[in-house]
Amino acid sequence: MKPIFFKFRNWLRLFLTGTFFDRRSAWQAFPAFFEAAGETSFPIPGLEQVSSLNLSQQVERCSAMTPQGMTLTEKYLLISAYCHDHQHHSVIYVLDRNSGRKIKTVILPDLPHAGGLAYDPQQQKIWLSNSSGKHAAVAALSLAEIEAYSEAGPPIAYQQKVGLKELPRASALTYDHGYLVVASFVLRGFGQIICYPLDPAGNLFNPRNGSLIQSPYGSLKLPTKIQGVTFYQNYLLLAQSWGNQPGKIIIFDIQTTSDFSDLTQASQILTTPPYLEQIYVAEEQLLVLFESGATAYRKKTPHVMKEVLQLDLNKLLKP
Fold it and tell me: How many structural domains compose the chain?
């Protein structure tokens, strides 16, 4: 009975909030995308208001939180968000992975754009995009500390924060087989994707406090406007989006691609609604996050996506 109950509750929530009709309109505009979309979705919290800290470190309601990054743990779906007005600390929403119920909002110690989240299941550690002066940085959080976090307490503390020498910004993150994979967003020219190895304790090696680390593997070129990166079997999947134009999920076969910045080498390109952000592979599903439900963007497109959708990768990758 549980699957039937969850499906019915999901449909009822969509119907009562008007999202059902929004999706019907979007379906007509992006049929291939929605043909792969499953019935189960997760509501994005904080699109209207959420409690955070202002610049004076006082608790205040923020109506400008904008979802950016997303990852899954064994029990939770985590979504990062930043204040579009840059007046409040960034946050991470913790949702129950099965029901989609929001469990808590974790306030971060600073105001990063938080464009990417990644989960290391070996060390049970969360990595998120950050910055260090003119360079990109990543910061780490313990999953145990996230679970123990109280909304009545102070902001959570980072376990580690590391600057990345090669990148001006860390726009997208993913974890893969002991590596933290970081991609950069650019409006013109080529983006980059770089792999950073994690040590046996799950840390990025940082020889001196405040120093920048460099990957031993160099970087590969990516297309412009990359917002998300993930892997599935022998495929590299990229989320490309900018402004109120339709987004794209770009799929490369790693074994046959010589240049990941060359869209003619992509095995498939799927057009999506605008304001596409992070994508994440979970078994045979591709989770897709949009920022169009945020206050700053919801009036800029008729296709407002207020939920994390799940796409069937078998349907998505069919010949």
Answer: 1
Range of the domain at 94: 2-316
CATH of the domain at 274: 2.120.10
pTM: 0.91
d(CA 118, CA 164): 16
Specify the pairing of strand 50-53 against strand 59-62: antiparallel
| Segment 13-59, tens digit of pLDDT | 444 444 544 566 777 889 999 999 987 899 999 999 999 999 999 99
